Each structure stands twice: as structure tokens, then as C-alpha cells.
Amino acid sequence: MADTKTRRRRSGGRAGAAERRGTAVIDQMPWNPPINIDHPTEPLDQDGIEAIHEGAMRILEEIGVEFYNVEAKGILREAGCMVEGDNVRMGRDFVMEMVGKVPSSFTITPRNTDRTIEIGGKNMVFGNVSSPPNYWDMEIGTKVSGNREMCRNLLKLTQYFNCIHFAGGYPVEPVDLHASVRHLDVLYDKLTLTDKAMHAYCLGKERVEDVMEMVRIAGGLSHEEFEATPRMYSNINSTSPLKHDHPMIDGCLRLARRGQAIVVTPFTLAGAMAPVTMAGAVAQSLAESLCAIALFQYVRPGIPCVIGTFTSNVDMKSGAPAFGTPEYMRSTQMTGQMARFYGLPMRSSGVCAANVPDGQSVWETSNSLWASVQSGTNMVYHAAGWLEGGLIASPEKFIMDCEILQQIQRYMQAEITATGPDEIALDAIRAVGNDGHFFGIQHTQDRYTTAFYQPFLSDWKNYEGWNVAGGIWTAERAHHMFKEIITSFEPPALDDAIRDELADFVARRKAEGGAPTDF
């Protein structure tokens, strides 16, 4: 797509927007994953860090975590951990030794090497909404089950927006595809409609092995090239409190042995699956993450791992999950401090509990995203398109969230806070003096096209101008934009021979039955 690779200077004011865009639907910022130049927000003092660490270690040493994967229990027993039935207890020395082997940063290289992303350090990357079973858009007007067309359209948005840097799980579950072959069709769509970093669900060995092979084929890679550096990743969740299931651990062991990246993210809702206190919930979340990371490091020292946080709270009146709350923000910041304490890259999320793309959805998601910034998060899941606590994906919400993501990227650009002579602008101030203005002077003329963030969705007209233009509210503007993007979408280039090889692989695996299911 022309607007995803070309770095253009803006020309003209709002009246020149159409000229700037050319045939593109919007004039978006170029591909440029942000570098977080801010100091992180750190609500914990040193005693607080030590207290949470001590809590996590005592959980692992004294209470233990249930592992339902027989192979994992055998490995941990060999490593010297205490295994009694499904319960595994491990000493802090072992945990810290294993965690110390995790690289502080690494890259994921997709089939388009121009879309390589770096995870760790001050790098931030944003991913699309992943895994909702339901879909909502303004044309349908109600929550419905996801299907392949909806999934494909959300993948097109994933590819279109430069502020989305990796393609997470299915942006909506296409439940019209049978579960035994769903992963084959969706991965084919993902690899042909996008060229960004790929994700695999750890839901049985067949799915993981199939995805690794399809990513290898799409990249035109030998098996050795695929395994030499991360080409994809998976995210797994513990089953809180204090459990790891069989398929997720199995999938990660397979990924680890082939050199692919792993994200471990407990889903700890304070007051339900974790203590009602945020420090207790964070300590439990860390314990659930660290024990799995220790396992993977023991199997393959130095395998790229990311510690994830999904610690929020429930509504104590109803038991429903709440997101984007003050508690969610603080737990994310606290986990960021602990991730730096352990030297681990970190994942968090852009989430909300709102049911439609309204004001609540924006402030809760904005809170979540800015907590990611404040925490020093490296990998932001669900950064665009999430509604109803992860049960709904919405294209309008996707586009609204991308406006926030672009603003975060602009906020991180160093030129905003530059303090050189041109930025202090004494000559300009002297030229204007006490009774002029800055609109027409050369200093402004040289910079006005790039001086400030220009939105693609926000409407900056006054009320009268907005009303004359139709009085269109934000979600409706996003809906029209969604339709234009889908209509004009052009998939990224892919060699015909590779496309055919992918299609042949999908057909063969379908003929073999795909992945087994229990229904």
C-alpha cells in the first residue's frame, strides 16, 4: 500500500488534506514504532518492590503452582523442583537463575522484514484486538457471533494502520469455520492479508505446529532459517489462581525448542481470581508468570520471553470484569517496576469494559494505553478494537483507538521537547515583539505543516461548522472510514509460488482432519 511505506511531509492545512492523501483514505503517520522517551511511573518504593518479590517467591516456594502438563512436571522434577501430584514448588534461587537467562530485548521478523519489531528496552509496539467471540458494527447495530468475513475485514484494518505493529490472535473468532480447521483458514488469511508479525494459539500441538510451518512457508525460509531467530510468537494465560493447563504449556515448549518468542500473561482479576488488594494480585500474577518462564528457560536457555500483566479488578456489585480503572492502571505500573526488577520485557493491554464505541470505551481504553506508556510496556496487546471486556471486536472502536495510538506515537517524538536555538526561537520572538503575531513569520511558515499532530478522525471544526457538515459523531465517522478502507484495501505483495504453497498446505492439513476437537 502506498501510504504504509512512503514517508511524506504534510503540505497545506486542513483544506489540503485531500491533496495530501492522494487516493489514500486517510493521511496517517508512517510506520515508526515509538521509543518511550519518558521515565516510567513508579508507585512502589524499594521496600514495596522487595515486598512484592518476596510475596511472589513465597507463593512459589510454599504454596506452589499446579501444572497439568505431564512433560512439564517431569522437566521441573529433573530441575530439582518439588513435584507432588500436579503441584510444583520451586526455590527462588532456581527461579531467579532461570529468569536471568531471558534476553532483555529481541526481535520478531515477519515475512516482510521491513516490519521487523524489537521487543524490550524502551521500544513499544501495538497489536490488534485478539480473540473476541463476538462482533459489533454500526451497520449491524447489535452484538453478533464473529465470522470469517468479519475476521478478514479486521485483519485488513490491522494491515492498513501503520500504528498497528503486530497481528495478534484472531481479531474476532470466525465461528462459522469449524474449530478443527479454523486455524488453517485464519492463518492463511493473516499471512496473505497482512505482512506483520504473526501469533499462534497454544491450543493443541497440531495448531502450533501448523502455524509454525505456515509462517516458515510464508517467509520463504528453510527450517534452519526459521529457527535461527524469532519469526512469530505466542501468548499464553495461566488459569488463575495458580494453575497452568496442558495445551498452553505444551505449545510453548514446542515454540521454545524452535526458537520462537513466548509471552506469559496471567489473567488475575482482583477480588475474583486473585486477592482483592492490588499488591497481592500483582504478586500472584508474577508467581504464575515466573514459574512458566523458568520452565521454558530450563528447556532452552535464552529463549525470548515476555512477562505479561492482565491484572485488573471486578465490579464487586456484579462480579463483572472492569478495565481501564485506577486499580488497573496502578497494577500495570507496579508490574512494570517488577519487570524491570527481573530484567524482563513486558506486555500489557489496551482494554475497556464498555459495550459499544462510546465515551466510556474511549476513556477506559485511553487509561489502559497510557498506563502501558507509564509502565514501560514493550508489547501492547488489544491496542485497537476491544469492547465488552474482550467479548466484542468492533471496527469503529479499532479506528477510534488508532487515533489514540497515533497521538501516543507523536507524543514520544523527541522534536516536541527539543530545546535547540531553532526551538527556543528567540529571533522569532524578537521579530514579533510585543504587538504582532506568529502566523505569518518565516519561522512558522517553515514549520507549520509538521509542527503539530494532525488527526485523521477527530473533528476540530467549531459546532456550527460541524453541524453544517452533517453533525456526524465520532463513531459514525469511524464507520464511514472503515467502509472506505475495506473497499480500497490492497493486500501486501506475496509471491504467487508461496501463496500456492500455503494453499496446498492448508488443503492437505484439512484433508488430514486438521486439529482434533471434542465436539
TrEMBL record:
Source organism, top-level taxon: Bacteria
Report the protein name in the record: Methyltransferase
A GO term for molecular function: methyltransferase activity
Q: Which residues cross the membrane?
A: none
* One Pfam family, short name: MTTB
Question: Where does the record place a coiled coil?
Answer: none
Q: Kindly indicate whether the keyword Lipid biosynthesis belongs to this entry.
A: no
Report if keyword Acyltransferase is assigned.
Answer: no
| Lineage of producing organism | Bacteria, Pseudomonadati, Pseudomonadota, Alphaproteobacteria, Rhodobacterales
UniProt record similarity statement: Belongs to the trimethylamine methyltransferase family.
| Bias-annotated ranges (Basic residues) | 1-12
Which UniProt keywords are present, listed alphabetically?
Methyltransferase, Transferase
Recorded hits in Gene3D superfamilies, A to Z, give: Trimethylamine methyltransferase-like (3.20.20.480)
